Amino acid sequence: MIKRVLLIVALACLMLPLGAAQAQDDLPTEPDDTAITDDQVNAIARELYCPVCENIPLDVCGTQACADWRQEIRTMLAEGRSEAEIKGYFADRYGRRVLATPDATGIDAVAWAFPIVAVTIGVVGLVVVVRRMTGPTQTVVNYDGLDPEYVARIEADLKEMAAS
Question: Do 73 and 87 meet the contact criterion of CB atoms below 8 Å apart?
Fold first, then answer.
């Protein structure tokens, strides 16, 4: 009987670490930043401008603040946030000026439409100017009131010049 009790106690002692390991697996884990590559971070960072420096993309800015912001992007990616959520977070926090490409809504739609309209107007204007410069290909001359012999000599001379 004592052998059975000792055997049960021994088995219970052997099972204790397995139960503790099982319990640890159920604990929430921190996001694994190491699984996110620099390319993934820079793909989003190049779509954002540095809020401190003027007109420098976040992926190439050398300030410590930008390094911290890239780390923040890395953490958000590890948490499972999408690119749109991360861009929205930075736009809400630092203003829309940090976005490399403006939204195609509201006043920002003008930024998208203006180049298309400007190029169209330029092409139409260029076509009109070129057509006016070239003029008609044949000129109609009015010989009314001129001596017919004089007109005949001019016509003959013009034909000779065209033939040579």
Answer: no
